[in-house]
Specification:
Strand content: 25-35%
Shape: globular
Low-confidence stretches: 25-30, 245-249
Largest sheet: 6 strands, antiparallel
Number of strands: 13
Length: 255
């Protein structure tokens, strides 16, 4: 029996689906395809993509629409001289944020990456944080009060695919050789996505994929191709849960 594997990463209102042909299954008498030998570049690109997807899924699982991509900048002339000093300043800020959230009985979740420009200037921190505005806690006001080294810039996390661009940026920054200046860290209370693995007794999957009831396939998320490492056919796409708008129309209708 020919079988393909379906892997579902469930992040609540978003699911990412991966489908690929398993190399150890084949119909009786079916000639097994010759396994492709990946190049070092193939392996490097695939490893980077895996890291990017891991960060992206952490963002999708733990942060909602309306949360923040926050950039913390330094005033000219006040930038730290060493990587350790920069990380210490970020840790101090995160500690003070965590204590403020704790007083309100709210867990503080975050993802952060620190980067310095190629010429040693424009040091800054990128963060993903929740937007809390209840029980006397206001995230924007807290950040402006507790980041004392310079300016802050807020952008909506899910606006124009912000979470995708940010996840890719974090991985790119993390893999740069900047003498330790590009560092990635996150809070320990982040939940991983729920992973479901199924073996489907069919030769191929549907193309284009069909969303189950109550969901829709995100536009431009469908990819059909070949895994660069295994050489096997591969498909991935994103599903999003339908939500009612004020007009009664469901988000995703017509697409």
């Amino acid at each position: 029996m020919t079988v393909y594997r379906k892997v579902i990463y469930d992040m609540g209102v978003v699911r990412q689906i991966e489908k690929y042909k398993r190399g150890n299954y084949g119909a009786p008498g079916e000639k097994r395809e010759k396994k492709k030998r990946p190049t070092p570049e193939d392996v490097c690109r695939q490893n980077q993509r895996n890291r990017w997807q891991k960060v992206q899924r952490l963002i999708l699982m733990n942060f909602k629409e309306g949360d923040w991509h926050l950039i913390l900048k330094y005033r000219p002339g006040e930038r730290p001289e060493t990587c350790e000093e920069a990380k210490a300043q970020l840790r101090k800020f995160l500690h003070r944020m965590r204590e403020a959230y704790k007083k309100a009985g709210i867990p503080f979740k975050w993802i952060a990456v620190t980067e310095r420009g190629k010429r040693g200037q424009a040091l800054h921190h990128h963060l993903v944080i929740e937007d809390i505005r209840r029980d006397g806690t206001d995230t924007v006001k807290l950040v402006k009060k507790l980041w004392t080294y310079g300016s802050e810039f807020f952008s909506a996390l899910y606006e124009d695919g912000e979470y995708e661009k940010l996840a890719e940026y974090i991985v790119k920054a993390e893999t740069k050789e900047e003498g330790g200046w590009c560092t990635y860290s996150r809070s320990r209370n982040l939940k991983p996505p729920v992973k479901i693995v199924k073996d489907v007794p069919h030769k191929r999957w549907r193309d284009p994929p069909v969303a189950p009831k109550g969901w829709y396939v995100v536009k431009d998320s469908v990819y059909n191709g070949e895994n660069p490492v295994t050489g096997q056919p591969y498909q991935h796409y994103t599903l999003k849960k339908l939500t009612e708008t004020r007009s009664g129309r469901k988000e995703g209708d017509g697409g």
